[in-house]
User: Fold this.
Amino acid sequence: MEDRNLTEETGSNADSSRGSSLAPVQQPVDEKLQKALDKLLYGGGHPAAQQTRNFLNGTWLGQPLHVVLTDVPVGAWTVAMAFDALEVVYDRREFWRASEVSIGLGLLGAAGAAVTGVTDWSDVDPPARRLGLIHGLLNLSGIALFAASLFLRKRKSREMGRIASLLGYAVMGYAAHLGGKLVYLHRVGVDRTDGQVFPEQFVAVLPEKSLLDGQLTRVMYEGTPILLLRREDRLFAMAETCSHFSGPLSEGKLEGETVVCPYHFSRFALEDGRVLDGPAVHPQPCLDVRMRNGQIEVRRRT
Assistant:
């Protein structure tokens, strides 16, 4: 667990070392929360904790589970708003009850979205970390408002229930806006290898004698980093940039036929790039690799 934030802590210490003699450096609140959350979620490195994280991250799904679950409360609460409008217009009990059921379903979905969102946030690096915290707190506020709305409706306070729902929907909408910034501006949850250029035909990238056995080696092809590895008579090649948060896999750890990212410890199979341990959910692109005329050659795997 201590290694997990080594890069971030090292950078923070380096930035603050010049002023350390003047005053102690205050650790940001979002960093404190994230580290506390890490201790809880990683479970001291227990395999069961990693399996739980793999499930919550969506490693098994091939995409963030949080993104899938957020559709449930958004859809359910949008329907609830529509039933509220119909109930105001027609004053029929059926619409009132339908709105209550929709809010309840949304709260169930929101619970799952919150748990998976917190798990994803535990591996988000600055500057997206603080924005992610605000996004999460706003969503929790929206959940609380919809829960209050359901309580008020059960107490026959229909007008106050509708007002609480409207406030919750507005808060949820702004939280969704911040969620969009996390994805499109900070690229949280997206495949960081998407768009990288790999050769369509075999091209030489490294002299054969420069590739040492058992050593993770980084080479470049037109600005794209590629990871090479020789294991006795076998050669492996894959995208060197981790699909999760762009960690340099050449600086990672080799574990059997797998490589572990140095940033957040995602683990990938060297043979086909599949994700074995999250938080990554997107597989690493692998390349065909061969040795010819004293050169290591690679091409995009089809």
About this structure: Residues 1-21 have pLDDT under 50 and may be disordered.
